[in-house]
Design brief:
Helices cover 72% and strands 0% of the residues. It is mainly alpha-helical.
Length: 111
């Protein structure tokens, strides 16, 4: 009777320990996924910060500020004029009215 009680106790202990190990495994997988998402988000934010810093540095100069105003509001400086480049019209392709066979018949019909 004593051995059976020890075996039952050990089996119960193994079940509880394996359940706890499974929970730790699941939490580890979840933490790895969250870490990957956080690293991706960090990389995106660092890239955005670099772009914003670059834009800020450009805006600190007079030339960069002028370029930003021209781009955003489509304005020009005093005395500048607008040039519009128009593509030339393409003529419609010429369609053949007769076939090669008809041309040969016309050439030899005069003899």
């Amino acid at each position: 009777m004593g051995r059976r009680l020890i075996l039952v106790a050990l089996a119960t202990l193994v079940i509880f320990v394996s359940g706890a190990a499974w929970n730790i495994y699941r939490k580890d997988k979840e933490a790895a996924q969250l870490r990957e998402q956080a690293e991706t988000q960090l990389a995106d934010l660092e890239e955005r910060q670099a772009r914003l810093t670059e834009d800020y540095e450009k805006l600190k100069t007079e030339r960069g500020l002028e370029a930003a105003l021209r781009e955003q509001y489509a304005v020009g400086a005093a005395g500048e004029e607008l040039i519009i480049i128009v593509e030339p019209e393409r003529p419609e392709p010429v369609q053949a009215t007769s076939s090669v066979l008809q041309w040969i018949k016309d050439v030899f019909s005069h003899w």
